[in-house]
Task: structure prediction
Amino acid sequence: MGCDIHGRVQYRYSPESSWFDGGPIENGRNYTLFSVLAGVRAYDDISISDPRGYPDDFVVDDNDDIELGYDDEKHKYWMGDHSHSWLMVDEIVNWPRWDESIHHGSTLKDNCRNFWLWLDWIRARNRPWGDSNIRIVFGFDS
Result:
């Protein structure tokens, strides 16, 4: 049985404005990425942050059926059942360990290439707000 990530990307216009939901995050299965984001399935001490739980101002769009836990009856979009957390995009982008070498000489960033492609797309699409006004909220299943 594997572990998957589930989550949402959220935006705000400025630090003073409210968050709004921007849709699902890139959710491929990459244990190196899971370790970097929250220490989940970690083989080394390589996490940006320990899981933080949901942010106090977590926004759920009323049009989406998002569950903050597991419920078979309402499984349209699930946030996972453990290690819930959130990271600002600027925290992710500015994390100093992305260029560290791991398995067979590749870097952490190389190993998380699909996530970085998605993240670059999110950043370009939402450039007016800046990286400090974009966050990802996520959880994992087992």
Remarks:
- Helices lie at 31-38, 89-93, 108-111, 113-125.
- Residues 33 and 112 are 6 Å apart (CA to CA).
- Confidence is low (pLDDT under 50) at residues 69-75.
- The radius of gyration is 15 Å.
